[in-house]
Amino acid sequence: MSSTLPEEETLESEAQAAPSWFARTFSALRHQNFRRMWFGAFTSTTGTWMQTVAQSWVVLSMTNSAFLLGVDGFLSSGPMLLFSLIGGALADRLERRRIMLTSQYLQMTFAFVLGALIWTKHVKVWHIFLLSFLTGSAQSLSGPAYIALLPTLVPREDVQNAVAMNSMQFNLARVIGPIFAGFALTAFGAAVCFGLNGLSFIAVIIALMLISAPAIANKSDEKRGIFDEMKDGFRFVWQRKSLQLLTFLSFAGTFLGMPIVTFLPVVARSIFKLDARGYSWLLTAYGIGSVAGALVVAGTGHANKKGRAALSLQAAFACLLVAFAFSRTLALSMLIAFFAGACIVGVISLYSSLVQLTTSDAMRGRVMSIFMLAFRGGMPLGNLLAGWVAERWSITVALAVNGSLLAIVAVVFLLRGTDLDSGLAPA
User: Fold this and answer.
1) How many structural domains is the chain composed of?
2) Residue 249 contacts by C-beta under 8 Å, 6 or more apart in sequence?
3) Is the C-alpha dihedral spanning 341, 342, 346, 347 positive or negative?
4) Which end of the chain is more exposed for a tag (fewer CB within 10 A), N or C?
5) pLDDT along the chain (427 residues), means of 10
6) Contact 110/135 with Cβ under 8 angstroms?
7) By residue range, what is the domain housing residue 310?
8) Is there a domain that residue 421 lies in?
9) Residue 292: inside a domain, yes or no?
10) What is the pTM assigned to this prediction?
11) Is residue 97 part of a domain?
């Protein structure tokens, strides 16, 4: 006769059935369609970060102006303000893969054109600005389709993990891309970075051709006007307080927080007297922290109180931003950048997954386009303002003021006990 009590047997069986930390962290990659999309997106994003590093350095070298660097950042992400809502409506009425494929072909062409202009030494600043705007426009039209497609590639229980894994591929590319860009810039020049980015789009194009995405449930009526469907998306968000708060907090986070990435070349060059490779290492420290943050979020997908955790991380990021502004030691700045990256990717992943989990598939494209409008739209506006402040006073003042304001926002919502986790069942 066994001496084990029934309760002990139950606990043992539950322990054996419980998945390991590794299995929980990478659970979304078990699904073939998501896995294909993940690796394709990772390859393409690595190329994009190579171009981002090279382009920032080229603009700063040509103009020696923090404000014009901010203008380039505005033009690359500003189209999100103009076209993301249209992209969201299209994502709910057209095949999402087709939208994404068109965007990838356009972005690949723009990268090759800019690379050729730099290679032949015919590039002007207005060329860079124009192609930044065109690339940003293509991204803004396909972004909602990509975000809306991801949850359909995994079961519902893996949605937050899929969102975190998507953040991880983006930030892992942020680590690898700048390293490659640093070597390519110093060894071959900026044109090679743009050419490699153009080639990287082939990976995501192949992935999109291979995946089998389910049809949109309750697909929107194409006979209705696209602006009427956009109004439906706003109405859906307006009727849900948690979505309103998530949208506002995402805007505040990117408007006040993302200039830390855009103006890293200014910090590297004016404060630490670094070259392109030194700048890429500073960006890499931020990216490694972002990967670490994504891994933590991916491994804690079933934890409760996601909204409070996101607010706490946002407050921590704000404090780190202020510390980064005043740091004059390179090693300390790299350490701060690491933790800042970990915090901000946790905030982004948690906010995004909360929005995904409160939205039905039929509305997901439009709701996510509104969320992206706030999230991505805050970047160009924040870049313009921070660039103006940095030009008029200093980059230290710009980052310190932004960090202080963001800390106030996060702490106010924390002290009020704001509930961002309400309504997690899809409507």
Assistant:
1) 1
2) 310, 311, 314, 351, 409, 410, 413, 420
3) negative
4) N
5) 48 51 75 89 91 87 82 80 78 82 94 92 90 90 82 78 79 78 84 93 92 63 66 78 83 86 83 78 81 76 70 90 90 91 84 75 74 76 84 88 91 79 50
6) yes
7) 29-215+228-415
8) no
9) yes
10) 0.70
11) yes
